[in-house]
Specification:
Helices cover 71% and strands 3% of the residues. It has seven helices and two strands; from the N terminus they run H-H-H-E-H-H-H-E-H. Helix 3 packs parallel to helix 6, helix 5 packs across helix 6 and helix 6 runs antiparallel to helix 7.
Length: 188
């Protein structure tokens, strides 16, 4: 959980977050205006790539220097989170970790919903991609010996974050009084 606090406090993370925000907003605006231009597709691809880079940098790039003997594995869903909420750690640190895991994958879900070919495939694509990326990150953290807890809780929270990003795209489309899938119908 402290890894998330460290990750968001450096200039590389701020730069990645800024570029990701610009790409997501640009892609969303271009898509919601029913523009199928090369610029729209490029912004969508940039948003997707930057969201993956952000996940990889924050989860793997900021953990260098930990030893593998510090690593533990928790495969019981939500056991680690419940233990942290009721255990010796402060509830605020645990809540920060929960929100951080969800927020980390929300841009991925948003960008995947922008780039999906058909609306019906967006949910499944988002959940499958988030699951595979999260499992890959957790496995890499364990294999690279970066310490901490490799937990199924993180995978569940990351997938929830991607789903929240997907929902946010649908909500944002409705708030602009447009159908969020209207721009994608020409591809189907």
């Amino acid at each position: 959980m402290t890894q998330l606090a460290r990750a968001f406090g450096n200039s590389i993370s701020v730069t990645i977050a800024f570029l990701l925000a610009v790409a997501l907003i640009g892609a969303w605006v271009a898509t919601s205006r029913n523009e199928h231009s090369r610029l729209s597709r490029t912004l969508q691809a940039c948003a997707l790539i930057l969201s993956i880079i952000a996940v990889l940098y924050i989860t793997l790039g900021t953990r260098l220097g930990y030893s593998s003997r510090d690593a533990t594995v928790s495969l019981v869903p939500m056991a680690d989170t419940l233990h942290a909420l009721t255990g010796p750690t402060t509830a605020s640190a645990t809540i920060f970790g929960i929100i951080g895991n969800i927020a980390l994958f929300a841009p991925l879900g948003f960008s995947l919903s922008l780039t999906a070919v058909r609306t019906s495939r967006r949910v499944s694509t988002t959940l499958i991609t988030a699951t595979l990326l999260s499992i890959s990150v957790e496995s890499a953290q364990f294999i690279l010996g970066q310490g901490g807890v490799v937990a199924v809780d993180d995978v569940l929270l990351n997938v929830a974050g991607a789903a929240a990003g997907w929902v946010a795209h649908g909500w944002a489309g409705r708030s602009r009084r447009t159908d969020p899938s209207a721009s994608l119908r020409n591809y189907g």
